[in-house]
Specification:
Layout lengths: L1 H16 L2 H10 L1 H19 L2 H6 L1 H7 L5 H26 L1 H23 L4 E2 L4 E2 L6 H18 L2 H7 L9 H29 L1 H23 L8 H7 L6 H10 L1 H12 L1
Antiparallel strand pairs: 1-2
Helix pairs in contact: 2-3, 3-9, 3-10, 3-11, 5-6, 6-7, 6-8, 7-8, 7-11, 10-11, 12-13
Pfam family, one: Sugar_tr
GO molecular function: myo-inositol:proton symporter activity
Protein name: Major facilitator superfamily (MFS) profile domain-containing protein
Length: about 270
């Protein structure tokens, strides 16, 4: 413990002497640091480009398109789903780990979007006005609603919060700058996705727009599988070693396996 405190003091002193430019440059000149920041920012980008915020911003519009008369009430239902599953994430994230949750939920997001794509194919929509051309949409509209609620559940229980706690991957000496880049990634991708949604719905049709989001989510799942390490329970010095060689997926799996017994013993001790 004493050695860790001394290391933190040394890092803090070194950080206080560095300019912002030196810290910023360190991210791009130190490969392991760059990989850590890239991983955090990629998860953040996926959380935004996957289409969630368009559903929040344009929920009433989307559900009126698919024929729901009280689209605002349906939008509130979606928001309530977001709230409930965000709380669920607090329970699951440290128990099952970030990587496990992302692997399951990001794939689930992609599948839900694909279901919405299929359902939209059966809904007659005027793509110029985004007005439904039938008074009886039927099962496709219900399927879109179910798909979106399931999508929001997957999003909120996974990438929604993990995108923010992903800054734990970033070394302490550049964490402030890395967090800034993560935040910039969040809002820049948010602007892109929210400002293009309606035009995509018109030019690509709703199926095309939701298909694009499904593709982003699938790409995100592939990224998680091959590049996102599990850092649950890792101390700072162990997380630093994760990105020393590549993206550290194998290293983190090995570390988790080696320390699994230690974690059980610690849990038993704390329980008593």
């Amino acid at each position: 413990m004493r050695s860790i405190e001394l290391s933190l003091q040394e890092v803090t002193q070194a950080m206080s002497k560095e300019s912002l430019w030196v810290t910023f440059k360190r991210i791009f000149t130190t490969p392991s640091t760059g990989r850590a920041v890239l991983t955090a920012c990629m998860i953040m980008a996926i959380s935004q480009l996957g289409g969630f915020n368009t559903l929040m911003y344009y929920a009433a519009t989307v559900f009126s398109i698919v024929g729901f008369s009280n689209s605002t009430a349906v939008g509130i239902t979606v928001s309530a789903t977001n709230f409930v599953f965000s709380i669920l994430n607090l329970v699951l994230v440290d128990r099952f780990g970030r990587r496990t949750l992302l692997t399951i939920t990001v794939l689930g997001m992609s599948i839900c979007m694909i279901v919405a794509v299929i359902a939209f194919r059966y809904i007659p929509i005027d793509t110029e006005t985004l007005v439904v051309e039938s008074t009886n949409v039927g099962w496709p509209g219900t399927l879109v609603l179910v798909a979106i609620i399931c999508y929001v559940a997957c999003y909120s229980s996974g990438v929604a919060t993990i995108a923010w706690i992903g800054t734990e991957l970033i070394p302490l000496e550049v964490r402030a700058m890395g967090t800034m880049l993560n935040t910039v990634t969040c809002w820049s991708t948010n602007i892109i996705i929210s400002s293009t949604f309606l035009s995509m719905m018109k030019s690509w049709t709703p199926s095309g727009a939701f298909g694009f989001y499904a593709g982003i989510c699938f790409f995100g799942w592939v990224f998680v599988v091959f590049f996102y390490p599990e850092c649950k329970g890792m101390p700072l010095e162990a997380i630093r070693e994760v990105f020393a060689e590549g993206f550290g997926v194998k290293y983190s799996k090995k570390w988790q396996k080696e320390h699994k017994y230690d974690a059980k013993v610690e849990t038993m001790v704390l329980g008593h």
